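Hi W., the zinc ion complex you wanted:
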Amino acid sequence: MKDMAQGPGFCPEGEEVKKMENITKTGRKKIPPRELRIKAYNDVRKLRKRGLSYTKIREEIYRKYGVWIDATTIYSWLRGKSSPYNGRRIPSLELLKPSEALGYVIGTRIGDGFSRETSYGYCITGLKAKDREFVEEFGRCIGIVLGREPIKPKFMKNEGTYIVEVNNKTLYELLKKPVDLKRIKPYVEHCPKCAAAFLRGLFDSEGHVRKEGYVYLHNTNYEVLVYAQKLLWKYFGIESTGPWPTTTRQGTIKNNPRTGKQYKANEDCYYIYIRAESLPRFYRYIGFTIERKQKRLEDYLRRTGKL
Ligand SMILES: [Zn+2]
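Structure:
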């Protein structure tokens, strides 16, 4: 790769295009791996926006990654005719970027959502719930994370529930069971906005507002609740108590409020309470996407003169 030492502008554009198609300066045929192509693709688009010529763009990519992207490829990328994203838009966890949308998806998945591999090798991440705006928000956020249009919920008539599902290996790798807090931490704790979105997803799923205004969050995973408490306090100064064990013990018959079906609790459950004096902060910084929950909290705060 010595030749670049001669500096940019060494090759006239026309000649270089012919000589370099898919061939590195060492003369070896080389197709850059997909992750590298994706990075190069994003750079190519940025550089073109800054007004660089094809030659300059190619040189810049070579300088950064040590590979020559041929001009036809650049042309077709810039025209939107092809992209290294084909099929699987985010090929590895390393390329998944933190965002509020991703924070919300993670929080929801740890709550009501699911992520599983099917026998056909599909990696399905999804959410099924009764509240339309909740599933809609999940679909919107998944769309942002994957660089797609919002995914519209499907209504399941028999169950009266809405569902959003996507097949994506990278998301599955991040969200698969068992929940690994270390794996999600860099995304959740990227900034206060990401943390708030994560908590909102979690509270939309498993948070409840009592008629008296108390807000609590339950989960079968004790660590998740401790983690939620830590985030609430660290980023938003919201105090909570617990985790306490619920009266639900393994084997207890329970009613699923979403589907109306009875089921046998197969795990112990815990909950935390938001302290009453922290509720205005909770409303302001976290809140609920689910309207009936948000309204109940708002009504309580108004009634008690806290809003
Ligand atoms: Zn962030």
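Confidence is low (pLDDT under 50) at residues 1-28.

W.
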